[in-house]
Design a protein that fits this description.
4-stranded antiparallel beta sheet, mainly beta, single chain, Neuraminidase, 327 residues
Length: 327
C-alpha cells in the first residue's frame, strides 16, 4: 500500500475499485492518525495514493460500508478538536460521513445514537446499514457495546434496536448472511462465540430484532478480525464452480490472560469459513491461511483480474462471482 495502515476500513466502489480509509500508521494512534484515502484497482493491480478526498476528520477504528453507490464511514476514534496537541485526548465518535464518488467529496449525515469505535458496519438489502457492537471509552473506562443500531438511508436516521447481542462485542467480525440476518464472530475480549443476529422489519413499527441463534464456537477466540461473504465451491467440489455462499473471517488476534505477558498476544493467520447453507463451520481448507498473521485489518471483496482461459477450453462459462478476491 502507499501508506502503512492499522485500524483502517475498506469499501468497494461501483466501478470495482477498492477504497482504503483512515486508520493510523507506524507512528501510532495520536501522531500517526490518518485522514487519507487510497484506492486500489484490482484489474490494473495498482494503488492510487490519495485517490479519494481525505476524511473530514482523521480517525481509526471506524466502521465502513457501501450502499447505493456511496461509502458510509461510521464512528471511530479521533483526537479532540480545538485542543493543543500536547493536551488533546482521544475520543470516541458519533460522527458519520458519506463519500460521494462522482463528486469526490464527503458530506455529513446523522450521528450515531451511541459513540462507537471498533464497530462493524454491514449493509442489509438496498437501504439499511447496521452498526454492530463497538466500544465507547468513557473517561478512560472502556464500555463494550451489546447494542446494534440501524440507519435507514431514506429517513437518514440511526435507531438503537431493542434486542441486544448475546455478548457485548468490539472489533468482531460481521457479515450479512441474507437481507435480514448477520453472522457476528468473536470480538474483544478474544471471544470464540458466534451468533446469528436477525433483523425483522415492520412497516408500522420501524425495525425490530428477533432472538439470535447460537452457532458453533470458533476454534480460536479472536478480536481485531473482519468478515466478508464469498462465493466458494461446495464441500468436495473445486473451483471454478462456486455456488455456495460462505462467510470468511480474516485476521485478528487472541489475548490469553493465563500466560506470561510476553506471550499473551498471538496474531492469527487462519481463515475460518462458515457455510451459510449448512449453517456450520467448514472443516476443509477451501481458503488458505494469510501469508502472515495480522490484526486490526480492513477487508474488501470485489471482482479480480479475469483468469486466463486455456486455449483447449472453448465452452467454459464462469458462474457469476467466480473470480473473487479479498483485500
Amino acid at each position: 500500500m502507499p501508506t502503512r495502515r492499522a485500524g483502517s476500513a475498506a469499501a468497494l466502489l461501483d466501478d470495482g475499485r477498492m477504497m482504503i480509509i483512515g486508520g493510523y500508521d507506524e507512528r501510532g494512534i495520536a501522531e500517526g492518525l490518518l485522514a487519507s484515502c487510497d484506492i486500489f484497482d484490482p484489474v490494473a493491480g495498482a494503488w492510487i495514493e490519495d485517490g479519494a478526498a481525505p476524511l473530514p476528520r482523521s480517525r481509526w477504528g471506524h466502521g465502513c460500508a457501501s450502499l447505493q453507490g456511496k461509502v458510509y464511514v461510521v464512528g471511530g476514534c479521533s483526537l479532540q478538536l480545538d485542543a493543543p496537541s500536547q493536551e488533546s485526548f482521544m475520543e470516541t465518535l458519533r460522527q458519520c460521513d458519506i463519500y460521494l464518488p462522482k463528486e469526490n467529496r464527503w458530506i455529513p449525515t446523522a450521528p450515531l445514537q451511541i459513540a462507537r469505535s471498533g464497530t462493524r458496519v454491514v449493509a442489509l438489502g438496498s437501504r439499511v446499514l447496521t452498526a454492530i457492537g463497538g466500544c465507547d471509552d468513557v473517561f478512560g473506562r472502556a464500555e463494550t457495546q451489546p447494542t446494534v443500531e440501524l440507519y435507514d438511508v431514506e429517513n437518514q436516521h440511526w435507531s438503537v434496536l431493542q434486542h441486544r447481542l448475546t455478548h457485548p462485542r468490539t472489533t468482531a467480525g460481521a457479515a450479512a448472511i441474507d437481507g435480514k440476518a448477520l453472522l457476528v464472530v468473536g470480538g474483544a475480549p478474544s471471544y470464540s462465540t458466534v451468533e446469528v443476529y436477525r433483523v425483522q422489519t415492520a412497516a408500522d413499527a420501524g425495525f425490530a430484532a428477533r432472538e439470535g441463534e447460537k452457532v458453533a464456537d470458533l476454534s480460536d477466540g479472536r478480536m481485531g478480525c473482519q468478515a466478508a461473504v464469498l462465493a466458494l465451491p461446495s464441500p468436495e467440489k473445486t473451483y471454478p464452480v462456486v455456488e455456495r455462499r460462505c462467510v470468511v473471517v480474516v485476521g485478528g488476534e487472541r489475548c490469553d490472560e493465563d500466560v506470561p505477558e510476553y506471550q499473551r498476544i498471538k496474531q492469527l493467520a487462519g481463515v475460518p469459513v462458515y457455510d451459510t447453507q449448512l449453517g456450520q463451520w467448514r472443516k476443509d481448507d477451501i481458503v488458505p491461511p494469510l501469508p502472515c498473521p495480522r490484526t486490526a485489518v480492513a477487508v474488501c471483496v470485489g471482482l479480480a483480474r479475469p483468469l486466463m482461459r486455456s486455449t483447449q477450453t472453448t465452452s467454459c462459462v464462469p458462474l457469476p462471482g467466480t473470480h473473487k478476491s479479498t483485500l
